[in-house]
Task: structure prediction
Amino acid sequence: MLKRIILLGADEGQAAAAEKMKENMGNKGSEGCSSDSYDADKSRLLGDAVLEGILDWKNGCGIVDCGNGILPVVEVIEREECAGDGLLFLTDSSLVLQNLKRMGMHAAAWLHENNREEDLSGAIYAVTEIEELDWESLEKIYLRLAGKPWTVMETERCIIREMTVEDVEAFYRIYAEPSITRYMEDLFPEKEEEIEYTKNYIEKIYGFYGYGLWSIVCKENQEVIGRAGLSWREGFDTPELGFVIGVPYQGKGYAYEVCKAIVAYGKEELGFEKIQALVREGNRASVCLCRKLGFRQEGRVEDKGVWYERYVNGKKWISDV
Result:
């Protein structure tokens, strides 16, 4: 979990924006401290990490030597009552960004009107209007850079989060049950292939869309019990609800609980007016679930030689869900 943010600014004119960001995020930072107290605060915030070549904290508040000049804007923002230890840097300097990346630090570019000539293309993520940022948005950047999954939402009994490579083991246990693959595509025969597919999915699908198929974790025992989410099927112009729940958890309302939350998320957070579900003929359990969720059948469709019953949850049916 993201605990601290360190702003490193080369443009003195951004000091007010940095101060406003600190204020909005509920942290007074290093305001009013002396050189000695700032060094002590730095030590507390960064723990025992030695950032040689990047941070030479000296001369009191807001002065940092990065080996090639003095940075006039330095702010440390700490989230109170946070159990995490995550650290994220934001910088408007290409030199600082390069050095941070070389040291393996998690860093995002800070864009503003005075650094448009800076080459910050080495950053995967960039932020603007920092005075309007919040912990939630920066937490997502940090998790992406750290290779950790986003928690998308929670229901009464489940956590819905992004998949991880470690989840693949649970997926093979779930898909080992013949009834699971009767109506859906199986995993790759070789686990290494599925792991590589999952890595690519995390990087490209989550990274581009910000959503997709997610892992379902049971709160009671922290086990991955299935996956569900929203994705785009090639050749279709409507996002699709997909879901699978492991056999030991079927018939207990988990699929309905999770899918109801996902449908609501798709409409309220992602702005989807319609969501479809393609159900293979004969899969009566999924048909019943779709109807319970407020989906209505709109004919049959064929995809890659397989026929499906197409169910759609439209905007006019939100009250039915």
